[in-house]
From TrEMBL:
It comes from Sphingomonas carotinifaciens. InterPro entries: FA_desaturase_dom (IPR005804), Fatty_acid_desaturase (IPR012171). GO terms for cellular component: membrane. Signal peptide: none annotated. This is Fatty acid desaturase. GO terms for biological process: lipid biosynthetic process. Residues 77-342 form the Fatty acid desaturase domain.
């Protein structure tokens, strides 16, 4: 595979664009300094916003799920299912915030989220904590050590639909993970390490292996995993005995698949995926990432909880989701039109999907 794919950057005089490989893009110190200085007062999370948003998403999500399962009309079941999927997707997206937050700043939020979302949806917070932070490590981003990176734009076109479609199996995979693998890992020597290393991370890099947890992290992991395992076994038992009707179970699984697919589509366009494995500067990482700011409206649904500002998040990972919009407005107004900051903003999902599809079709092999 030819790995000379690069970002096009125009010269100052407006001449023909030159090609600069991602790993050779130097840091733009003006952009980095401006972004940091203008957002120092936006670091503190607002507990009221977090809790209100989470609880509203959970109430709507589970309420709509109940309607979908019990509806006598197919049309009503479908409509309620879509509402449930979008609301639960938003609720689940808080796992990203949890992986970044200082828990002392939002006491009990992680525990509340696990009780309301992580355990019921079989996606506890430990599946992302200790994993996502590696994606933000300057020397790991875009390399084989990044759990959340694949050079999708440099791969073959058929990999994109496979990347999306395989995510539909996530609810089944999670059910197997917690109802079967968790109990087995307690009785089969050596199997516990396999489960932790390979089946305990929300990662897309198949080469990634996570470390065994230690100390308080291990104790928290064990408590939450035990709860998720008991819940998963209870689900299987209730479906097998008819306590949960098969129709209702399949509807819930379909909604879970919808959540996973929408999230995978968002993941597909969260980056340009053009890095070939070399370490990159922060500016290069930013340019390989994506903002979809207003006036676009739909990103609020498919990239919720601040994920529409994914590139900005790579510059300022400590800014809570509810302040990213203000941060973007400040930095946008302060930096001149030629700043790299403006090059990471895109209009919407269709154009981003088209961009990566075209990249896979034009890469030289």
């Amino acid at each position: 595979m030819d790995t000379t794919i690069s970002l096009a950057r125009s010269t100052a005089g407006g001449a023909a664009a030159t090609k600069v490989p991602l790993h050779r893009i130097a840091d733009d110190k003006t952009m980095l300094r401006t972004a940091a200085e203008l957002t120092r007062d936006l670091i503190a999370p607002r507990a009221g916003v977090y809790w209100a948003d989470l609880i509203a998403s959970v109430v709507i999500g589970y309420g709509a799920l109940a309607v979908a399962v019990t509806a006598g009309s197919t049309a009503l079941a479908i409509a309620a299912g879509v509402v449930s999927m979008l609301a639960l997707y938003r609720a689940l997206s808080f796992i990203h915030e949890i992986s970044h937050m200082k828990h002392a700043a939002l006491p009990r939020f992680r525990g509340g989220w696990n009780a309301l979302v992580g355990v019921p949806m079989l996606t506890p917070s430990f599946m992302y904590e200790g994993v996502h932070n590696l994606h933000h490590a300057k020397t790991r981003y875009g390399t084989v050590e990044d759990p959340e990176y694949l050079p999708l734009a440099l791969m073959k076109p058929w990999t994109l639909p496979v990347f999306i479609l395989v995510s539909a199996l996530a609810p089944l995979g999670l059910l197997i993970r917690f109802a079967i693998l968790s109990p087995l890992s307690l009785v089969i020597p050596g199997f516990r390490r396999v489960v932790v290393e390979r089946y305990s991370a929300l990662a897309i890099n198949p080469q990634f292996r996570r470390r065994m947890p230690e100390g308080e992290a291990a104790r928290m992991w064990n408590r939450v995993e035990t709860a998720a395992s008991i819940w998963a076994i209870a689900i299987v038992t209730m479906v097998a005995t008819g306590t949960i009707p098969l129709r209702g179970f399949l509807i819930a699984m379909a909604i879970g698949s919808g959540v996973a697919v929408v999230n995978q589509v968002r993941t597909l366009v969260a980056h340009l995926w053009e890095n070939d494995g070399e370490a990159m500067t922060v500016t290069a990482q930013y340019l390989d990432s994506v903002n979809v700011p207003p006036p676009a409206l739909l990103p609020a649904l498919w990239a919720p909880v601040g994920l529409r500002y994914h590139a900005l998040h790579h510059l300022l990972p400590g800014v809570p989701y509810h302040n990213l919009g203000e941060a973007h407005r400040r930095v946008t107004a302060a930096l001149e039109p030629g700043s790299p900051y403006h090059k990471a903003s895109y209009k919407g999902l269709p154009g981003l999907v088209d961009k990566i599809v075209r990249s896979t079709m034009t890469v030289r092999r």
